[in-house]
Write a structure and sequence with these properties.
With about 300 residues, the chain is α/β, with parallel strands linked by helices. About 50% of the residues lie in helices and about 15% in strands. It is built from 11 helices and 8 strands. Strands 7-5-6-4-1-2-3-8 form an 8-stranded mixed sheet, with helices on both faces. Helix 1 links the parallel strand 1 and strand 2. About 35% of the residues are buried. The structure holds uridine-5'-diphosphate and magnesium ion.
Length: about 300
């Protein structure tokens, strides 16, 4: 059976359309369930999901107590999924559901993760593109995960989903984690379609915060930059210090100048090193302390036995 996880935040116009399209495409080829995860929507999204689940047993739903973000919604869906393979797809039909049969084929032929990668990025502004590029480059260089063209549109084998469900960390980044776990991966290209209805749910601020938290939850490199610059500064201070002492001994120095320079250099480099080391410990503590739940489910719709057991 195929489980389809669909995060939805204020998507009342899109839910019925998406459910209908999925039914058209999936019912002839496989048994399936649709798990809509309502990420604390303010509109009628949850009512619509509940009504659908009463009419159609393959539709299930989870409702969050507030907006926890797409990551939480995806992971709640993965936990609730009972299929042999699980697909994650956006609610706004920007991820073409027509690709699902192709992804299923790839899975049947042995792929454990089938990634849909963006062949074109659809309509996006220049600044947005620039930020996306920079973010992807940083992730690649520091965390060694290649996210260029990556999307959250994926189909995963049960093994992969179990591996993801077993991850204890709280600050997740699905796109990178599903790459980090490894497994036999196959890529299929798609063109990003325009949004079906409604506006994008990401403001620039929200996206920027998302990028920042993804970087810090995946790598300690930014913290190490401080330590490394502390060390570099210390070497620089040593050289300059020696030069100052030489000048002082040969009588070339202005009165009192040497003492001031030496003090600044020593105090500066020790401070920098100290901050770097504290930062490093902080990053360790921060890694350990992630034990708050990723999301809180307040209501369920349809048969959710699987989800309650876990
Ligand atoms: N989404 C969510 N929680 C949020 C923001 C978005 O569950 O806080 C869902 C949204 O309903 C949609 C998907 O994530 O199904 C992608 O959102 P959107 O289409 O707004 O993003 P974009 O396609 O512009 O990147
Ligand atoms: Mg979208």
């Amino acid at each position: 059976m195929l489980s389809v996880v669909i995060p939805a935040f204020n998507e009342q116009e899109n839910i019925p359309v998406t459910a209908e399209r999925m039914k058209e495409i999936l019912s002839p080829i496989t048994e399936y369930e649709l798990i809509f995860v309502d990420d604390g929507s303010k509109d009628n999204t949850w009512q619509i999901i509940k009504e659908l689940s009463e009419k159609d047993t393959s539709v299930k739903g989870l409702h969050f107590s507030r907006n926890f973000g797409k990551e939480g919604a995806i992971f709640a869906g993965l936990k609730a999924a009972s299929g042999d393979c699980v697909a994650v797809i956006d609610c706004d039909l920007q991820h073409p559901p027509e690709l699902l049969p192709k992804m299923l084929d790839a899975w049947n032929n042995g792929a454990e993760v089938v990634e849909a990668v963006k062949a074109s990025r659809g309509k996006e502004g220049i600044i947005y593109k620039l930020f996306a590029k920079t973010f992807y480059r940083m992730m690649k260089n520091s965390a060694n995960v290649d996210l260029d063209g990556a999307s959250d549109y994926k189909l995963m084998d049960r093994k992969v989903v179990d591996a993801l469900n077993d991850m204890p960390e709280r600050l997740t980044f699905f796109r990178a984690l599903s790459c980090w776990v490894g497994f036999k991966t196959e890529k299929i290209e798609f063109d990003v379609a325009p949004r079906n209805a409604g506006k994008t749910k990401w403001s620039f601020r929200k996206l920027f915060r998302y990028a920042l938290s993804s970087i810090t939850s995946f790598t300690n490199v930014p913290m190490q930059i401080i330590t490394v610059s502390g060390i570099l500064f210390f070497i620089f201070a040593l050289i300059l210090g020696i030069q100052t002492i030489v000048n002082f001994c040969s009588g070339n120095a202005a009165d009192g100048f040497s003492t001031v320079i030496l003090l600044i250099l020593i105090v500066g480099s020790i401070l920098m090193l100290g901050i770097g080391i504290i930062g490093y410990y902080l990053s360790k503590i921060y890694e350990e302390i992630k034990c708050r739940p990723r999301y809180i489910v307040s209501e369920r719709a349809g048969d959710m036995e699987q989800e309650k057991k876990r």
